[in-house]
Task: inverse folding
């Protein structure tokens, strides 16, 4: 097989080249084999050994359908310094499972996995990669299905290509950090870009749903959405073929030529930071400015102050200086692809006894927010504007009361009117409801005598 730094494995023909243990191929996906209509509880798939250009970094991606009570674990090993490492796990994964990345290293400490990236510090780098995916279920009536596996390496000697010049602009929704869940801090940039990549194909998913579906729980002190393997897996849950890649300019131009925007990682200074930081942006076009005879790229910068300022233009020479080479590609989904996107529960809201407090109900039964709820609650007033996506609406933060209710913000209670309420929990499941808040009664005009002896009901006489 030709040596490439980006490998994407999908489809029956490609998967059949590997070793299947207790697995079968069904509609181009890896599933648990079955006996008498019952799925086996565990199975494994191992790819062939792939020769790669000498590399220093490796990233692995997967797309899978994992119903409740099922699990997927992806592992890899690297050939370096004349030997294969032991298998390294990227963590057990399922949409409704608390995802945690795993850190591990080789015996000599020269090859280690942290989060979503394998780093090879051995002389000469790594020259080979092998992947393994383990499928399991606790319910013999259901099986996970792995549709895509990918491996991407950053070559030590990277002969980057420029490709053909391109002049094309794609639509990409614009979302900024300041308008969405602040609990993830600046790391909310990747969920914003991932939501935009899917929403341009009509998905209409909230960035908060993406953030909680890809959250990495390996750190307890801070919330993290920086794991790009989990980001690709979250998009795969929604049915979109998605994978990490190390790209040069030719690769980026090919994505735009094919009509697909791409998430790119750049290193630059942002407001409030003294040193440069790594930031995810959405790349959605290339162009040429005849006035200054220079090429440029079109980007969505989620650190902009408002949604309207997210779209920006950067000179191509500057972009190539800031671009780290790390990217996430996403392609439109096929109609027949089975998806298990974050759940949405349609609810109603019932007014409580305290002012501005409401409680979720579902089909007439209480659906209070649980005690361990640690997600995002917000309301969006109906402003009469037809927004391109739900994420473009104006959100006001709400809080959870001690008894599982929703406390509306004072400014919304003062205005009243219809609004939509969204409560996304730590698994990505979202409660959605609409409510009409009562408009405050107008304050009656004062009838107290004025200084000249007249009442407020009649004009003063000269």
Result:
């Amino acid at each position: 097989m030709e040596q490439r730094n980006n490998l994407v494995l999908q489809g029956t023909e490609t998967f059949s080249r590997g070793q299947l243990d207790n697995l079968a191929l069904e509609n181009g996906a890896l599933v648990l084999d079955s006996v008498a209509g019952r799925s086996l509880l565990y199975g494994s798939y191992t790819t062939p050994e792939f020769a790669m250009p000498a590399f220093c970094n490796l990233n692995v991606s997967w797309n899978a359908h994992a119903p409740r009570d099922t699990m997927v674990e992806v592992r890899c090993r690297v050939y370096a310094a004349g030997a294969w490492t032991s298998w390294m796990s990227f963590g057990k994964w399922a949409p409704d499972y608390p995802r945690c990345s795993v850190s591990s290293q080789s015996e000599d400490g020269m090859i280690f996995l942290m989060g979503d990236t394998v780093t090879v510090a051995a002389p000469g780098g790594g020259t080979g990669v092998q992947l393994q995916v383990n499928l399991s279920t606790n319910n013999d009536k259901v099986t996970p299905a792995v549709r895509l596996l990918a491996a991407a390496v950053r070559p030590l000697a990277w002969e980057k290509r420029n490709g053909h010049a391109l002049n094309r602009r794609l639509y990409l929704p614009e979302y900024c950090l300041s308008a969405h869940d602040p609990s993830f801090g600046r790391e909310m940039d990747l969920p914003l870009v991932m939501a935009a990549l899917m929403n341009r194909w009509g998905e209409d998913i909230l960035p908060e749903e993406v953030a909680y579906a890809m959250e990495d729980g390996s750190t307890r002190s801070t919330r993290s959405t920086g794991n790009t393997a989990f980001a690709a897996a979250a998009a795969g849950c929604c049915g979109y073929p998605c994978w990490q890649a190390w790209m040069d300019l030719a690769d980026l131009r090919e994505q735009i030529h094919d009509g697909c925007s791409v998430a790119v990682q750049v290193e630059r200074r942002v407001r409030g930071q003294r040193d440069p930081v790594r930031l995810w942006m959405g790349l959605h076009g290339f162009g040429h400015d005849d006035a200054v005879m220079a090429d440029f790229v079109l980007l969505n910068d989620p650190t902009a102050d408002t949604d309207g300022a997210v779209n920006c233009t950067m000179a191509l020479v500057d972009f190539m200086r800031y671009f780290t080479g790390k990217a996430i590609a996403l392609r439109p989904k096929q109609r027949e692809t089975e998806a298990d996107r974050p759940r949405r529960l349609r609810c109603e809201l019932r007014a409580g006894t305290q002012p501005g407090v409401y409680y979720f109900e579902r089909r007439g039964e209480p659906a209070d927010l649980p005690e361990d709820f640690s997600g995002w609650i917000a309301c969006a007033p109906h402003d009469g504007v037809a927004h391109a996506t739900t994420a473009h609406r104006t959100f006001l933060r709400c809080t959870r009361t001690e008894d599982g209710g929703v406390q509306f913000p004072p400014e919304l209670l003062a205005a009243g009117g219809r609004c939509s309420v969204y409560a996304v929990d730590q698994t990505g499941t979202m409660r959605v409801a609409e409510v009409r808040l009562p408009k405050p009664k107008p304050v009656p005009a004062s009838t107290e005598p004025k200084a000249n002896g007249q009442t407020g009901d009649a004009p003063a006489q000269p």
